[in-house]
Design a protein that fits this description.
two-stranded parallel sheet; globular
């Protein structure tokens, strides 16, 4: 480290040391390796403005200073001590054997379908299991299936709100009213009216109630005439006049000083108690004037009852009258009137304000639909609505749960959703704890209890309440959740019982089939060679765990092995963008004095999570950038565009992110830059952060046609293709633009197309390129056109498009051109083309994987091994190696190759291939299990359905 930098540090009086602590010790998502690559944070929330650096009160001296840092090793806030790092605990269900758990879930689904049982809870279980896998598509599919199968308004309301929450429309500016009728681009499963008023059977009405034409007006009855002296809806002192009257009055209810005229038979028909009162053995049966002054209804309310009794419908009465009718219906058991009032009041709720004014009376009168609609208003404004004290009191308190339960609107699904939102916002909050306690109270199924208890343990551990955490974890273990043993061990360790924690995890390793998380957790309680051996085993079993990489990297730096430390942390960053790993690498770059690289990683961190606090939560990234301002190059916007073009063309995604973040620091309202940021984040598999960038792009845009495009991409990226197409059409009608045509082409191309349809997509891309845009986007359009031409077997046209893309430095077009060479039987040229790409994208696992298709077997194996080393989550290399081993009659090795990947990444293709291998080996039980797990992930996969059918037939024959 340079003396100038040290002088700067000292001049800022960063002298007070403080101890290292764990970095983000828990994640509510899928990976035990820390927070997901898309970062946490509050959606579109702006990062806290950096304070003046001179206000920083502390730094930390690194106790084992590498020689690369010079004689004085003082760094801003120091470095992480390897001994202080801890792995994260997943706050979700994590079965010991994912494949067996998925297969069991599929069997429950098949059994429920056969017996006509409720499927909604089965799909919610699949959603809970998918959180540990971390596949956003599986999560969406399970949630949608649960919504389709929900057969009561309450769960439809909850799941529709959850689906809407996944797009975080609450962060739109302005936010769409939560209960407004849906538009043509609103996903049908999220329609607020459909959720409440749909038919009771499971399934989804293909026509949304908001888009259905209004019913024709009812045909009026033929009128009769009489002299009126007491109009049921007028004032009592009206002059007598001849009015249309279709009924006779033979009963009057006296309320105070007023009389309300009714028809005895009509009132009696409302309910059995009223029929008994008016026609039974009571004195009222012989009277034509009955005193109702003490029955809690006003004259206006009684007139409304009389009108309903005669006509069987509710007119446009004000809410207070409707509430009187509802109370009357409950008092006298008028089921028809109650249902009508419930429906009418539910349709009056338009937002949180109306919901707050009606919810108490709805709960008091057990009006199920009214309460469901009020609840819907609260849920569709999450997480904001949880900050409202009245809403929080209802949703979080045990009394509130009891009231909701009495009104048929409390369920495990409700508190599963609420606790999910609360944990994303703040794991340590009292709100989160209370919601998880309500979740536990609603738990009925074994998986319900496992999830609620385990999450309570995680939250208590995060809050530092270790004894309580241990108790919750032990309860979860008693319910059958083995992974909670890691929580028990961690709680014991935090209470100072390290050896007890070690013994517990040692027993887990011995009692169960090995899993990466077991060895990772045991390593926390070991030292020396035993610790390093456990970490190596953890990485071998599950290379996606980030803690082993972080620990080894920090330990190597303590041993003064800077290059090895950097190489170790780069291993995980090559396939997973995790803020805390980027932070460690930024620390390492500071040690080496490479401030440009350090700032680049800090900017990437800020892109993933604008609220992320570095150096053990003591410094915001913007502050560090400000601190290093005098040690890095400064670019104006023109320089930034040049840098972005070079890095984008050089397939340097992290570098491109950093440049875009720097440009946005200058122009925070630039929607085009926000959109490019989202593209980079999607390429890096950081979907959550990408969605946040898209929402910010949408909010920043001053043009309606641009907002429609960004909304379309949000819909498309969350699986709503048809709605995204409609947004693109709306945008094009307003103004032709590159992005609108590109969105339309992309959405249309995402399906199996015939040649004519495919060429229409090419025409759309040509129209896109005729609009104003930059070469970064035009290159992508030409690349996509080339891919479509290849699919249509128009190889010359494809070559032309790929060549144009390469001429404007769209480097990824090498891959498409290689495919053209291969289809023209020029395998060597295809291999060379991919080699050209690898000269630029040296660490691209996908490029190595693609080049292997054009290589001889030995070179292909080498390329696929490199692809696995760079990104162990890519499944094609495992399938290829397994197929080669099977061809060589090495069946056990082939199964082992697939099982190695399935242990940490359940994947449809891997499961299908292993099932086929088991079938060829005559292992029918294993074939059925893998087919069931695969069908749990995709029930429509044709090849797996065929294989499952054959295996099931064999099983039946063997039993007969």
């Amino acid at each position: 480290m340079t003396n100038n930098f040290l002088t700067t540090i000292r001049s800022l009086k960063l002298i007070e040391g403080y101890k290292a602590a764990q970095i983000y010790p828990f994640s509510s998502g899928a990976s035990t390796s820390g927070s997901s690559g898309d970062g946490g944070g509050g959606g579109g929330a702006k990062p806290p403005p950096p304070r003046s650096v001179s206000l920083m009160s502390a730094s930390m001296c690194y106790p084992h200073a590498p020689s690369t840092s010079g004689s004085d090793s003082t760094l801003p806030c120091g470095l992480p001590s390897a001994a202080a790092l801890e792995p994260a605990l997943d706050a979700c269900l994590r079965p010991v054997d994912h494949v067996s758990a998925l297969a069991a879930s599929y069997r429950r689904m098949s059994s429920a379908e056969a017996e006509g049982d409720d499927l909604c809870d089965v799909y919610l279980e699949q959603h809970a299991l998918s959180r540990a896998i971390g596949d956003a598509r599986l999560l969406r599919r399970a949630l949608r299936a649960a919504r389709v199968q929900a057969c009561d308004p309450h769960r439809r309301v909850v799941l529709a709100a959850w689906l809407r929450y996944e797009r975080r429309e609450d962060e739109f500016d302005p936010m769409p009213p939560p209960l407004d009728p849906c538009s043509p681009t609103t996903p049908l499963l999220e329609c607020p009216r459909s959720a409440v008023f749909a038919r009771e059977s499971s399934g989804v009405d293909p026509v949304c109630p908001c888009r259905r034409p209004p019913p024709p007006p009812p045909t009026p009855r033929p009128p009769r005439f009489r002299r009126n002296s007491s109009n049921a809806f007028g004032a009592g002192d009206q002059d007598e006049e001849e009015v249309e009257e279709a009924e006779t009055n033979d009963l009057w209810f006296i309320i105070g000083q007023e009389e309300v005229a009714c028809e005895r038979s009509c009132i009696a028909s409302l309910a059995k108690p009223l029929n008994t009162l008016l026609y039974g053995g009571f004195a009222e049966a012989r009277r034509d004037h009955i005193d109702f002054s003490r029955d809690g209804i006003s004259p206006r309310g009684m007139r409304a009852v009389a009108a309903y009794s005669r006509h069987g419908r509710l007119d446009d009465f004000p809410p207070d009258t409707m509430l009187e009718l509802l109370a009357f219906a409950n008092k006298f058991c008028c089921e028809g009137l109650k249902v009508a009032c419930d429906n009418k009041l539910a349709s009056m709720v338009r937002g949180v304000d109306e919901a707050l004014s009606l919810i108490d009376l709805g709960l008091e009168e057990a009006a199920h639909l009214l309460v469901a609609t009020c609840l819907q208003a609260f849920l569709r404004e999450l997480p904001k609505s949880l900050s409202n004290p009245e809403v929080a009191r209802l949703l979080c308190s045990p009394e509130g749960r009891e009231l909701l339960d009495a009104a048929g609107n409390a369920s495990f699904a409700l508190y599963y959703f609420l606790s999910y939102v609360a944990m994303e916002e703040d794991m340590r909050s009292n709100t989160t704890v209370m919601l998880l306690e309500r979740l536990w109270e609603c738990a009925e199924q074994p998986w319900h209890k496992q999830l609620a208890l385990h999450q309570l343990g995680c939250v208590m551990l995060e809050r530092g309440e270790f004894k309580d955490a241990q108790g919750w974890f032990e309860d979860a273990v008693a319910e059958g959740h083995v992974y909670s043993l890691a929580g028990v061990a961690r709680a014991k360790y935090k209470c100072g019982h390290k050896y007890m924690a070690y013994k517990l995890m040692n027993r887990v390793v011995g009692d169960y089939d090995p899993a990466g998380w077991m060895y990772q957790e045991r390593s926390v309680y070991c030292v020396g060679k035993e610790k390093m051996a456990d970490l190596r085993t953890a990485t071998e079993l599950d290379p996606t765990l980030t803690y082993p990489y972080k620990y080894r990297a920090a330990a190597l730096l303590e041993e003064d092995k800077f290059e090895a430390a950097l190489e170790e942390i780069d291993k995980v960053l090559s396939f997973r963008m995790v803020p805390d790993c980027l932070e460690i690498r930024a620390w390492f770059y500071l040690v080496a004095g490479d401030f440009e690289a350090a700032v680049q990683d800090v900017r990437a961190i800020l892109t993933l999570d604008p609220t992320y606090m570095m150096f053990h939560g003591k410094m915001h990234g913007e502050q560090l950038i400000e601190l290093l301002r005098g040690h890095v190059q400064h670019w104006d916007m023109a320089d930034c565009w040049m840098q972005l073009y070079d890095r984008w063309s050089g397939v340097d995604d992290i570098g491109s992110l950093a440049v875009v973040q720097q440009m946005l620091a200058r122009e925070p309202g630039n929607s085009s830059l926000r959109f490019r940021q989202s593209l980079l984040l999607l390429r890096l598999n950081c979907q959550k952060a990408a969605m946040r960038s898209l929402r910010l792009a949408r909010n920043s845009s001053i043009h309606e046609h641009e907002r429609l495009v960004y909304e379309g991409w949000i819909l498309y990226d969350t699986g709503h293709r048809e709605e995204a197409l409609e947004k693109a059409e709306q945008s094009i009608r307003l103004q032709r633009s590159f992005e609108a045509f590109f969105l339309k082409a992309y959405a249309l191309g995402d399906s199996s197309l015939d040649v004519e349809s495919a060429l229409s997509v090419v025409q759309l891309l040509e129209q896109a390129n005729s609009c104003a845009s930059d070469n970064l986007r035009k290159g992508q359009a030409y690349n996509n056109m080339g891919s479509i031409y290849v699919d249509c077997d128009l190889l010359n046209e494809a070559t032309e498009c790929y060549s144009i893309a390469l001429s404007i430095k769209h480097t990824r077009a090498h891959q498409g051109l290689a495919r053209v060479h291969y289809l023209k039987n020029r395998k060597k040229a295809a291999f060379d083309e991919m080699s050209s790409l690898l000269k630029i994208a040296k660490n691209s696992a996908s490029a190595y994987e693609k080049r292997s298709e054009y290589a001889e077997r030995d070179v292909a194996k080498s390329d696929l091994n490199m692809a696995t080393l760079l990104d162990p989550t890519r499944t094609y290399p495992y399938r290829y190696r397994a197929a080669v081993l099977m061809d060589e009659n090495k069946e056990d090795e082939a199964i082992g190759e697939l099982s190695q990947a399935l242990a940490f990444k359940p994947d449809l293709q891997l499961l299908h291939l292993r099932a086929a291998f088991f079938d060829s080996m005559g292992d029918n039980t294993s074939t059925l299990r893998d087919c069931e797990a695969a069908l749990c992930m995709d029930p429509t996969h044709g090849d797996t359905l065929d294989l499952y059918s054959r295996a099931s037939t064999k099983a039946e024959q063997s039993q007969s």
